[in-house]
Amino acid sequence: MPSALPDGEPVPDDGALPASALAGAAERPLGFYLHVPYCATRCGYCDFNTYTATELRGSGGVLASRDNYADTLVDEVRLARKVLGDDPRQVRTVFVGGGTPTLLAADDLVRMLGAIRDEFGLAPDAEVTTEANPESVGPAYLETLREGGFNRISFGMQSAKQHVLKILDRTHTPGRPEACVAEARAAGFDHVNLDLIYGTPGESDDDWRASLEAAIGAGPDHVSAYALIVEEGTQLARRIRRGEVPMTDDDVHADRYLIADEVLAGAGFDWYEVSNWATTDAGRCLHNELYWRGADWWGAGPGAHSHVGGVRWWNVKHPGAYAGRLAEGRSPGAGRELLSDEDRRVERILLELRLLEGCPLSLLKPAGRAAAGRALSDGLLEAAPYESGRAVLTLRGRLLADAVVRDVVD
């Protein structure tokens, strides 16, 4: 969750949505994202809305405390129930992210999930995920989560190489994420993901292959691999600007992506989104698919974004301000926007084109359809799906996904 928030119109104090946003809601899937904004230390590459204890000291008081955060977030879940009214939908997915959610007690995460179950109900096959720092969990913690209803967990591995982890300011020990996978399986987790980052300054092709092989060897059924993005204002950006570490270029990122796809495919992982691979359809992250397919989700927590029926809104960023608004019985929303039909068309193309199934060519205007034809001729789109009316990226197209999207959205 990037730290910057967009502009927008004010959110009413009661959080009420336009009637148009709730029309037909029963037919749309609903997910919840729960943001936990706390970290033990700040990673040098991170631009997310997160806070260490030092950063919060004196700026949020007791309201920003980790100790009572679960209570505060439960208040927003109850607000969501009031805003969504008599919507009969059960929640299809829950994703707890951060930050480091597992800095909270396992019982706190279970209590937050319990509030969603109590207020909305969970679908019988609901996917319930939390992110986890490998050093912040152990067998007992994982068992509590599993017994409390979590069935999917995502560990931040990033790399198997110590010198790469050091550049990223990651504090876990190499080998610990792999051990976590075994502990999660022993606790009964159905699905386990490992997150990897490629393109870190000082990382070699061999380092990257070693990380992929270590991740695969641990036995997850899902792997996410993201190119390192150096965000302005981060410690890593400052180090690169001072010449302390080199910056990798787009060609290196492309090479690493090709290595990832080759190694993962060879181990039985199939891509289903440009940066995500799973061993089975059941192993896909259903929560992320809600985002990518424009479904409804409520984002609870500081800086969290939500989308319901074409209305998108975002919460105030600071944990103290967030808790203060809820304590006063007010929505924590900082701003919102009503998406036009054109906005939603463009977003569908942006998101769906990154998926294995691609996007319908019918979404494209004449200029975009012409651009898609050129992309097909250039080997960026698959021929057979194109003939059936869908734009699906080839492997080379995945490398140039952003450029393809720019061309076809007119």
Task: Walk me through this protein's architecture.
The strands form three sheets. This protein has a nine-stranded mixed beta sheet, with helices on both faces. A hairpin with a 2-residue loop joins strand 10 (305-308) and strand 11. It is of the alpha/beta class. The chain is 40% helix and 19% strand. It is globular. The relative contact order is 0.14. It starts with 18 loop residues before the first helix and ends with a helix.
Top keywords for this entry?
nine-stranded mixed sheet; three-stranded antiparallel sheet; 14 strands; 40% helix; globular; rSAM_horseshoe; Heme chaperone HemW; cytoplasm; 4Fe-4S; iron-sulfur
Brief rundown of the structure:
Keywords: 4Fe-4S, Chaperone, Cytoplasm, Heme, Iron, Iron-sulfur, Metal-binding, S-adenosyl-L-methionine. This protein has 410 residues and is α/β, with parallel strands linked by helices.
Strand order of the largest sheet: 7-8-6-5-4-3-2-1-9
Distance between the termini: 27 Å
Largest sheet: 9 strands, mixed
Overall mean pLDDT stands at 92
Helix content: 25-40%
What proportion of the residues form beta strands (DSSP E)?
15-25%
- Total beta strand runs: 14
Number of helices: 17
Topology:
Blueprint: H1 19-22, E1 30-36, H2 53-56, H3 69-84, E2 91-98, H4 106-119, E3 122-132, H5 139-147, E4 152-158, H6 162-168, H7 176-187, E5 191-198, H8 205-218, E6 222-227, H9 235-241, H10 250-266, E7 270-273, E8 276-278, H11 286-292, E9 296-300, E10 305-308, E11 311-315, H12 319-327, E12 333-338, H13 341-352, E13 359-360, H14 366-377, H15 383-387, E14 390-391, H16 395-399, H17 401-408
Parallel strand pairs: 1-2, 1-9, 2-3, 3-4, 4-5, 5-6
Antiparallel strand pairs: 6-8, 7-8, 10-11, 11-12, 13-14
Helix pairs in contact: 3-4, 4-5, 5-7, 7-8, 8-10
